[in-house]
Each structure stands twice: as C-alpha cells, then as structure tokens.
Design brief:
This is DUF4129 domain-containing protein. The chain folds into 5 domains: about 180 residues, no CATH class; about 80 residues, Sandwich (Immunoglobulin-like), CATH 2.60.40; about 90 residues, Immunoglobulin-like (Sandwich), CATH 2.60.40; about 90 residues, Immunoglobulins (Immunoglobulin-like), CATH 2.60.40.10; about 80 residues, no CATH class. Helices cover about 35% and strands about 25% of the residues. It has 12 helices and 27 strands. Strands 20, 22, 23, 25, 26 and 27 form a 6-stranded mixed sheet that branches. Strands 5, 6, 8, 9 and 10 form a 5-stranded antiparallel sheet that branches. The chain is elongated. The two termini are about 55 Å apart.
Length: about 600
C-alpha cells in the first residue's frame, strides 16, 4: 500500500476543488448547482480505469496494475480526508459520487492481478472463474455510476462508462470461453477418420484474490475441482490451530469469501477426497492508521492555538482510548478518537509537532509531523497631504495605521529620517516646513512590535515652489481655465446652431449628448460569483492567494480594517454555497453591504 504522503498535494488541490465547488446561490432563486469540475475529475478517473484494463489485458503490461493502485490510493485519500468536512456539516456532492468509484478501483486492482496471473498460467480455469466473479461485482458499481446525474446549471451531466464496459465485457467473454469448455476424460475415437475434440482435463486448484490483506478485509478463495462435490478449505494459523470450511462445487468451480480477524501468517489449502492443493501462504497485516488534523495550525502571537487531531483507521473508524504522544508527551484520545492540546507563543515562531501512535494488537502505528505557526498581525499605513506647497510655509501630513493601534511611526523625507510621531487610535499627523524649492518624497514607516508586523506607507510627492512662482502659476492656471470655458461655450453654441440649420424641415435637432460618469462596479446578485469577485480583488490588491480556503483567508487577514465585513461575507457564502441553504433577504442585504465595505477597504473599484 502506498504512503499517505504521496497524496498530500491532492489533499490541498483536488479535495478543495471537489468539496468546495464553484456553486452559486441565487439571491431570489433556488441555488443552481455547478458540478463541472466534479464531472471532469471523475470522467478522467473512468479514463484511467479503461487505460488500466487495456494495458493489463491487451498488452500484458504491469503498468496497468500500477495505474490501478495509484488511482485507488488517490480516491482513498480523498475519502479519508473528506471525513473532516462531513463532521463539520459540509454537504458536498463528492461524498455521493465517490463511493462506487472507490469500490470499483479496489476491485480493479484485484482484477489486474488476476489477469496478469491468468496470462502467466496458461489461462487457468480457476483464475477464469475468479475473473468472472470480480467483473460481476464491478458491473454493479458501473450501474451505480451510470445512474448518477450531475448538473451544469440546468444541464444534466452523465458519466460515459462505455469504454470501461467494453473492456470488461471482452475480458469476461474470454474468461467464460475457458469456463464453457468440456471437462472430461477423453475417449478413444471409434475410427481413424473421427476427429477428437479439444478437451481440457480439470484438476484441483486454489487461488486467492489477495495474499496480503489487512485485518477484516474481505478476500476471495476460488478454484477448480475434478468432481462436482464439495471441497474443504483448510485454514491453518501460525499457532497450529486449524479450521475447515466446506464449500459447494458447481460445474467444477468453487468460491469462498473470507475475512481474517487477527493479524499473522496463515496457510490455506483445498481438499477433495484424497486430492489436496499446495498450501497458500497468507500474510494478514494490521489495520493501517493515520492522523487527521481538524483544527487551524496557525494563530496570532500571544493567543492560544488549540491543535486537534483525530486518530482513525483504514476503514475511517475513530480509535478512542488510545495512547499517543505529542513531542514525546503522552495523551489519551477521547471517545471520538480526538486529542487536543493548547499552544501559545509570545513571539513570531513556528514549531514542529510530532504526533505518534505506537499501534496495538490490531492496528499499525503511525506518525505525523505538523507545523504550528504563530504570526504577527499585518499592518498597513496610508498618508495624505498637499501636492504643492510654498517654500517656507507650514503644511500638514496626515496618516492612519490599520489596525488602529497606539504606537510610534517614523516619517521619512527624501529617504532620510525626519520625525517620530505617535499614533493614537491609529491616527497620526506631522507639520512640516521646507525652505528649498524641490520635490519631496515623503513616506511613513512602522517598525513593528512583538504583536504587529512592520509596514511602509504609500509615497507622497510634494512639490515645494517659490512664493512668486506659485502666484504666477495660479494666474496661469486661471487664464487657461477661463480660456477653456470660453472656447467650450463658443463651440457649444456653434454646434447647436449648425444642427438647427442642417435639420430637415419639421424635425428637431438632436439634443447634445450628456457627460456620464464611469459606471460603478456592480456586485453580482449571485453569492458565489460575488465572493469570487472579492477573492479576485484580494489577490490583485493584497496578494492573498486564491488557493486558500475561505477560512484560511480570514486567518491571514485578522486585524485588517475590512476583516469583519469579510467575515460576514464568508459566513453567508459558506451557508449558501457549501451547505446549499438559500440566504434570507436580510442576509443578502448584509452580504451586499459587507461586499461594498470590503471593496472600499481595498481602495475602491478603480
């Protein structure tokens, strides 16, 4: 079985996209599902199923088995990680679509193994029977997949299983051809001209679908027998205890489904009369386990981070009352298999937390390393002031720091320290006087504290001009403006007169077009589309990555001036999109107001 670490990237990308699809909830309509990614992902999974069958059966290439095992591991990882979201009450279509695909992938791995053995063992009838039985089960999962309906708005999407079914049918036909042969002792022909039929003599054989199962995992023993009488399956454990199971034989074939309830080595053989097969060695492994992290792994310095982990097994069952260690310190999981512990740091830091379970009688041990991060609160500074000032005259620079904190801010002029001022409730100001005629480059710097990250403001350019030059400049501006106004009025009168002169008799001249202000960015009524717009703005204005989940985005922006409005947006968005609940009128109004507030905090729509 492959390591869980192989699918770590899938946990971040595929799971988020599958569980958090771009569904949109209409403000006044029933939510419209959008399952395009879900449909594309599982359609690609069907393609991998078909490729696996083709490589294994038609080319005899064990890459088909590798592809099947990789696909099974990927689907298993999604199924296991999805347990976190289900426990949080998130309803997603992936939980409905996934089971038959995963069950099919498990059977596909077994089928590929049998097909490779079938080709190596001269198309053994016993293996042929195992192939037919497995394909029968796989066809049941195919029927489940075919009955599913996904939606792209109002369009119904159905999975195309044709390629997979074609390969399964061809493989089944070839296996049944072996089974339908006559198994008799050949007789001598009555004369030399009589042609003797091709006859296969059946013997006693025994096969198993998996020689390395885990505890409680179903395996199938199957084989052939020369007589249509029962056979005895003898199971011998490593302590010498023997168990016999009588299995009926039909058309010279028999099959038995079995689960081993204890780990260890077992030896199995089939007996009919005085005939016996060789012993099959079965190595039953303990049930794999793993840790699921169900809480945030980052927090602000000087706050408490409660880290929660759930210990579960391969079958997604939580393991209660198990001792685990956290960096060597023992803890006991509760009735839900959960362990929780608090972390705190007075400074910005990251810590490696090692969770370890030693295993027990039936379960394998496991370990997981989690990185817990404590970060300072991000800050932003904005300053404003005049664009032009007279030399020797005092002017004021005003600024604000967000979050609104009391601290000290350094003012720089032309990259040189100018003054240190105090911010009160996030506001500060400084008066300046400059005698030299030049352009000043002014900005503010917050050096940060143990709680807040440092930041630098926008750069303000202030032109310092001589008094007489400034007066002349004002006069020049006044003359230019007056000239433009006069020209505009004359031109307007001329155009109006021209239109009246050129207009045909009995018609009126068209009115002069009005000057319109640029259209304001509209917030979509669709909650999902509106939230996507906000995420685009957060990425372009603040560099917040789009691959973060809504909750991770909130964690990143704690302390930002638009945080509370973004929190309102996120809450309504999760209810509408993930829980598929139609927002109330009051919630839609609150959503729109919060969206406008976030856009304003991001600097408007420009």
């Amino acid at each position: 079985m492959r390591s869980w670490g192989v699918a770590k990237f899938l946990t971040v990308v595929i799971i988020v996209l599958l569980i958090l699809p771009p569904a949109g909830a209409r403000g006044v309509e029933k939510p419209v599902p959008h399952d395009e990614f879900l449909y594309q992902y599982f359609s690609h999974t069907l393609e991998k199923f078909a490729y696996s069958l083709r490589y294994t059966y038609y080319e005899g290439n064990d890459y088909g088995l590798t592809l099947a095992e990789n696909t099974r591991s990927e689907l298993l990882q999604i199924m296991m990680e999805g347990k976190i979201y289900r426990e949080k009450g998130i309803k997603a279509r992936v939980f409905e679509v996934l089971p038959p695909f995963y069950n099919f992938s498990v059977e596909l791995v077994t089928l590929d193994r049998l097909l490779l053995s079938f080709q190596e063992n001269n198309q053994s009838p016993g293996l042929a029977m195992g192939i037919v039985n497995i394909i029968t089960r796989m066809n049941g999962y195919i029927e489940e997949i075919k009955s599913m309906e996904l939606y792209n708005g109002t369009e119904i999407l159905r999975f195309d299983t044709g390629e997979v079914e074609k390969y399964l049918n061809e493989i089944r036909t070839a296996a049944e051809k072996i089974l339908n042969q006559t198994f008799e002792v050949p007789t001598q022909p009555q004369n030399q001209n009589q042609t003797q039929n091709q006859i296969r003599i059946i013997g006693l054989s025994l096969y198993v679908t998996n020689k390395n199962p885990i505890v409680n995992q179903s395996v199938t023993f199957f084989g052939t027998a020369p007589l249509n009488e029962s056979v005895a399956i003898i199971i011998l454990d490593e302590n010498g205890l023997e168990r016999g199971i009588v299995v009926p034989v039909s058309r010279h074939f028999f099959t038995l489904s079995y689960r081993f309830t204890n780990p260890g080595k077992y030896f199995v053989k089939a007996v009919q009369g005085n005939l016996s097969t060789e012993w099959l060695e079965i190595d039953v492994r303990k049930i794999p386990t793993y840790f699921l992290i169900t809480s945030p792994t980052s927090a602000i310095v000087n706050t408490t981070l409660t880290l929660k982990a759930v210990l579960v097994d391969y079958y997604s069952n939580p393991l209660p009352e198990r001792e685990i260690t956290v960096n060597g310190t023992p803890f006991i999981t509760d009735s839900n298999g959960t362990v929780a512990f608090d972390l705190k740091s007075s400074r910005e830091a990251s810590f490696q937390i090692t969770l370890e379970f030693q295993g027990d009688e039936f379960h394998e041990g496991t370990s997981k390393v989690v990185t817990a991060e404590f970060t300072r609160i991000p800050t932003t500074i904005t300053i404003t002031g005049p664009g032009t000032v007279e030399a020797g005259k005092t002017f004021e620079i005003r600024g604000s720091i967000s979050p609104a904190i009391n601290s000290t801010v350094e003012i720089y002029v032309n990259d040189q320290p100018y003054a240190i001022v105090n911010s009160t409730n996030g506001l500060f100001s400084v008066n300046m006087t400059h005698e030299t005629v030049e352009t000043l480059k002014i900005y503010a710097v917050f050096n940060g504290t143990e709680l807040y990250l440092p930041s630098k403001s926008n750069v303000l350019l202030v032109s310092v001009v001589a008094v007489e030059d400034n007066l002349l400049r004002y006069l020049a501006v006044i003359l230019i403006v007056a000239g433009l106004v006069t020209y505009s009025q004359r031109d307007r009168l001329f155009r109006k007169r021209t239109r009246h002169e050129e207009a045909p008799e009995g018609t009126e001249a068209l009115p002069e077009p009005s000057q319109e202000t640029p259209a304001k960015l509209e917030i979509p009524k669709d909650v999902g589309e509106a939230y996507s717009l906000i995420r685009d703005l957060l990425f372009r204005r603040m560099g917040i990555p789009k691959n973060l989940t809504p909750r991770e985005t909130l964690e990143k922006l704690k302390g930002w001036e638009g945080y509370e409005s973004l929190k309102t947006l996120t809450s309504i968005h999760e209810k509408a999109v993930y829980k598929k609940e139609t927002p109330t009128k009051a919630e839609l109004q609150a959503f729109k107001k919060a969206a406008e507030a976030v856009i304003t905090a991001l600097g408007g729509t420009g």
